Amino acid sequence: MIYLVFIAAVLALGFAAFNFVTVKRMPEGTKQMQEISGAIRVGANAFIHYEYRILYTVVAAVAVLMAVVTTWHAAVALLVGSIMSGCAGFVGMKIATYANVRVANRARETENVGETVKVAFRGGSVMGLCVGGFALLGIFLVYMVFGVGMGQARITSASYTNLLGLSFCPFTMTLSGYALGCSMVAMFNRVGGGIYTKAADMGADLVGKTEAHIPEDDPRNPATIADNVGDNVGDVAGLGSDLLESYVGAISSGIILAYHLFSKSLAEGTGMDGELLQTLVLFPLVFVSIGLIASCLGIASLLFKKNMSDDPHRDLNACTYFASGATILLGLISSCLMFGGFESASLKEILGFQCGQFSPWVAATVGVAAGVVIGMLAEYYTSAGFKPTRNLARTSLEGAALTITQGLALGMKSCMAPCLILGAGIIASYQAAGMYGVAMSAMGMLSFVTATVSVDTYGPISDNAGGIAEMAGLDAKVRKITDTLDSVGNTTAAIGKGFAIGSGALAALALMISYLYSYNDFDTELILNLIEPMTLAGAIIGGALPFLFSGMLIEAVAKAARKMVEEVRRQFREIPGILEGKRKPDYKTCIEISSKGAIGEMKIPSMLAIVVPVVCGFILGPEFVGGILIGSTICSIMIAIFTGNAGGAWDNGKKYIESGEIAGSGKGSPAHDAAVVGDTVGDPLKDTVGPCLDIFIKIMSTVSLVAVAVFAEHNLAAWIMGLF
Amino acid sequence: MIYLVFIAAVLALGFAAFNFVTVKRMPEGTKQMQEISGAIRVGANAFIHYEYRILYTVVAAVAVLMAVVTTWHAAVALLVGSIMSGCAGFVGMKIATYANVRVANRARETENVGETVKVAFRGGSVMGLCVGGFALLGIFLVYMVFGVGMGQARITSASYTNLLGLSFCPFTMTLSGYALGCSMVAMFNRVGGGIYTKAADMGADLVGKTEAHIPEDDPRNPATIADNVGDNVGDVAGLGSDLLESYVGAISSGIILAYHLFSKSLAEGTGMDGELLQTLVLFPLVFVSIGLIASCLGIASLLFKKNMSDDPHRDLNACTYFASGATILLGLISSCLMFGGFESASLKEILGFQCGQFSPWVAATVGVAAGVVIGMLAEYYTSAGFKPTRNLARTSLEGAALTITQGLALGMKSCMAPCLILGAGIIASYQAAGMYGVAMSAMGMLSFVTATVSVDTYGPISDNAGGIAEMAGLDAKVRKITDTLDSVGNTTAAIGKGFAIGSGALAALALMISYLYSYNDFDTELILNLIEPMTLAGAIIGGALPFLFSGMLIEAVAKAARKMVEEVRRQFREIPGILEGKRKPDYKTCIEISSKGAIGEMKIPSMLAIVVPVVCGFILGPEFVGGILIGSTICSIMIAIFTGNAGGAWDNGKKYIESGEIAGSGKGSPAHDAAVVGDTVGDPLKDTVGPCLDIFIKIMSTVSLVAVAVFAEHNLAAWIMGLF
To answer: What is the pTM for the complete model shown?
Structure first.
């Protein structure tokens, strides 16, 4: 059955390669279009090369440290993970920089929405398929080499005493290393890309829209190419490696938990056998393989569709619904087949499976349902079709201060509903299949990630296509088509963000439980006791961590954006004729400012998640780190929802104002100026802070999980206590 | 020793009465000044009467419910608490509306800063002394009538079995009722007053400063009287009952914990005797009585000082330092005397007292130190004398969007340092004196609350005096003196906010521990296990609660402010001659808008803290409510620090811009406009949301503590589980 993983991975990567080549063969359009897209491509390549150089230096350092402190297997797995995630991000970004101009050209040639959507989606599907393909390929390699080949995964009742003598299971450590490798790439891509894209975006808007009153993507704006580069490095590569990391995190937390449950069962004598362990380990792998194949089918159904509807949103939704529906259906069959051989009563007793052989499937389905509802809630709060964003847009008539105030209120109020769903999801999936169920619900949310990433990546590609159309001065009809695509992209992005934080939260919780298993004795009950002063202090300090992290990120964006503002102002001042369109601005300097700003500012926040749990662990011990994990997970969920919805609502509120549907609004009105302030404030919140937070909590959990094997025994606090 | 409480309370109330009469006898100044202050007084009285009518209706309903569900003793104590807190707020507000005009007049007559400070401080001291005096008077009454008179406090080893048969100790329930009464008044005063004051302030600023470009407190602004009324109902009455509630919460959590520790010790057979229980119960009462007497002396030392320095900040600090120093010194003596009779070894074994007889004192001193450091950190982040606020002011040169972005970053980053102090404080006080130590450190922070409230109330009185001076067209010299007083008031307010949230957090944690004791068996170890899915789900939903609450409050302020904006615009438009100063605006309508807005909007958020834990408890049981408490406590701490510091920094950043010290800034510059946007956004954050959150968490904890006796046994989840 493990070969299903390999088949799915190869199928996905093959499909990705086919789509890559197909897109690249399409015509690029006019010479001017080629020039512009060339400039964007060069900028994106330069940034990602430079970023990867720093990233892989840090990865190498962490791998060496890991080999010394834990095992060399984990270090190698870390490298494998970082390569898989790095490849996915790189390939996805590469195709996005080819696809953007081809989308614009297809719109120019056919003037047909459906045909244009297909090109953008084909480009986006490469990113999606790479996420699923590379992630599973890596897991397959790690499982076959270390798990099967070196026997790490072969733990039976015979190795019982041996196992409990160690404070960790060897394969869970290796798998954690793999997950950590993926997470590190995601962190750097998200933070670096996030700072890059928003510094460019804010810089371009602050001078272009607010001071010079020229439209978005106007070629007279020196920061406009940097802004488009940012879409590719931030919203494509960043998003891809982010979801790859969530995907791997969810899968590995399920597998790691299976091993811990096995150890615990052995210690308690409730008698889980090797066969059940094997099934528990294989189920997540089989389930995500099914999800990947279903996603491939869903993508194909859209790409080979003859009659596209006029509404791209409906076609894209059909793809996602097909993938998720097929996953759930096939998942039901596999759950029955795999767990059907075990007795319901014993499953219930050993693992808390309340629904017998259906239990893991029920938990996964709960996850899928929760993900869909959370996504819908994100749409409700951020779409101009609903009350909250319309109210927000209306406050813009009263000026910038009330726009900000109302947006903050909207974001804060929007936290409750998704948290109710998350809470209900946790209780339901736990009732269905115990702790393992919580991990399965995270995995359920992410099982058809290839479809969702494909849809998500379609957004920035369309955005870029619109930018190229504008800069190349294409016909208004073309721009209208790309605008249609772009506005659909905004909605899918909001839904995607809800999905990312929901699944991230569940995966982080599953990892946290694995963490607790790693240092607690298996024969005591598992507790994270917030009445312990160490844990409580950890929870309070942990709660402050995501705020510190978010504040640092916002400040980093603001700093780089300010430099960009100065440069754009300088160019307008010193190079005469730019605003009249007589001379070309100096795009390159702006690209350099964004690159340098991002590279310079990303280091400290990225390292925070890796360094804090390790340092705290060695000084204050595992209870304190446990507190840190729960505190930062809870606060990260809140900030991610708050920033995502507030930012999304400001963005769409501004668009609603631009549509002029409210009396006294429209482009150029004072209400529009106020709405632009809201949008600008929301930019770093929704596109830098929010998306980085789910990586932040997972990387902290994974690092703690890896390091706890060491600091559980050796820490300063325990040593001091030992002195008395 | 219990009579010390009575003596201290009577001393404080006598001193308050003396200061009240002294202030009221001072001359009021010109006829115009009398008119203006009369209008403010009438507005404030009208609002507080209307607010109290609603408040006491709700209190009465809760009391009846409580008498039915728990005990009638608790219901009566609730009424006593609400009357004490209501009186303190009422008297403090009353004197503030007398003192404001007299401060302005003293400045006019003497043109001396020191003399003027004395009047403002004498007015403020009435509020401070009422907080300490009424709080202790109420506790004394409750203790003597129910504890001693009806024997509820007399629990010895003889009543052992009897005690464990009940799921709560009768006196702890009565005391919780008293604390809840105080909390309910605080909630309504803070929320109602907070909405009132910020709606008026924002409304006045949005049209006055931003559109009409007239200065603050200009009599041509129709909302200016409402703004000054707001200072009295929000910043005086609200602040007073807020700190009274924290004070009572900290004292009662110590006493309640003492009873729980006694019960636990009996159940475990570690042998705490009645004498030690008595001492543990009396110690907090003695300590705060000492603190109250020391505060009286500190206040007197300032009021009867002959040679005031030129720097009011130094004189005010001297008062606080004297009070806190004397409290610590006398507290050391009382700790030694009271606990000296017990053996160190047995104290250590039974209660975890690591420092023998000094233990409770050490914990209290840790609290005082933590409070002072947290206050200093708040000053660092919000004062224009330090880097963060100066940097923020500098970003105003780049426009409103970056001012907001940078301010959000500053607020978020500022969460970490105070949380580190809180975490360290928890660990240190726990090490010194166990769980009891955590409660003692909260009590330590608040023991000299009379001095800090006196200093805090001095601020809004000075603010009002400045407003009256401006409106009455007094000499520029007078306005300069009141401005000096006002700027000192801003700093003391920032420090006071740090203090409030720090002590609120510790008191809430102590109450939470009491809550856990209330439903767990005494012979099992006390745990709040976040791995339990019910608790975990509760923590996530609990984390979203303060965000919901904050969002509702911000929206309430924005809604009322928008109405105010419309009214002010209407008056400027429809009543010709206002802006030329030829005709008086219609102040009364603006006062009515603020009143109606506050009264209408305060109900739902105020009830949230009372209703949520009860409803959740009856549906999902005590574990879920435990999770709610920890989740909302952690997130409330973060939001309170974040909003307080961001708002304070925007406020002082604007003042720094106005000072013109940065090139290109100064009043009327574009940078100033941007800074005003920041200040306006910050207003509801720092003065409505932040201060309400510490009440929010304590009221939730107290309500849970009261209701758990019922819902621990009777809840829907347990009933459903029982069906299977």
So the answer is: 0.93
